[in-house]
Amino acid sequence: MTLKWIKISAILGIFILCFPFHFMYDWFPNTLFSIFFPVNESIFEHMKMLFSAIVVYGIIDYFVLKFFKQKRNNFLVSLFISALLSIPVFLVIYLPFYYLIGENMVINIGFLFLTIIISQIISYFILKSDNLPKLNIVCVVGIILVYIVFGLLTYYPPINDLFFDPTNEKYGLNTYNV
Fold first, then answer.
1. Contacts of 1 (CB under 8 A, 6+ apart)
2. How far apart are alpha carbons 151 and 138 in whole angstroms?
3. Mean pLDDT of the chain, nearest integer
4. 120-123 long-range Cβ contacts below 8 angstroms, 24+ apart
5. Which residues are CB-contacts of 60 (< 8 A; sequence separation ≥ 6)?
6. Residue 140 and residue 144: Cα distance in Å, rounded?
7. CA torsion, ordered 123, 79, 65, 33, to nearest 10 deg
8. Which residues neighbour 173 within 8 Å (Cβ) at sequence distance 6 or greater?
9. How far apart are CA 92 and CA 45, in angstroms?
10. Smallest Cα–Cα separation from 38: which of 108, 120, 142?
11. Through-space distance between the first and last CA atoms of the chain, rounded to whole angstroms
């Protein structure tokens, strides 16, 4: 299997992972899961779902790349950059439509799929590039830092549209209504 086909299958794998990840905190409400999975219906919380799906699928992706003897030198760089860039890519695509027409599940899922495609194109080109060994270490630290920020923003969200849960009319895990 070529790198191109591995990345195409990754698009589908990440997309499928997003669905159980969306409900993971509801099924297993605890502090650890609140850092990795959405705790409410805010836009920010769905960015955690997307980032986590890309990172978790990355574990599968690594072994698939290894099995098919594909280049893995820049794997962590590819994983971190594609996961991190998926957040602003989604927001740039999604927010204009959200503010123009409001919430629409079909459009949201379509934009999610498009964002995953873009993230895997980025991943593909990073994996094809020259070896970046020192950046791999930095990217592990980067993934950890992103999850620390996710945890902080889940428990101490700013009062901002991105963090507002319109379904429950609250921010983060706060128990009070706004």
1. 64, 68, 70
2. 20
3. 93
4. 120/7, 120/8, 120/10, 120/11, 120/14, 120/82, 121/7, 122/78, 122/81, 122/82, 122/85, 123/7, 123/10, 123/78, 123/79, 123/81, 123/82
5. 13
6. 6
7. -130
8. 34, 39, 40, 154, 155
9. 16
10. 108
11. 52
Instruction: Encode pLDDT of 64-88 as tens digits.
Output: 999 999 988 899 999 999 999 999 9
- Amino acid sitting at position 160: N
Beta bridge partners of 170: 165
Domain borders along the chain are 3-171
Closest of 38, 51, 70 to residue 167, by C-alpha = 38
- Per-residue pLDDT at 168: 87
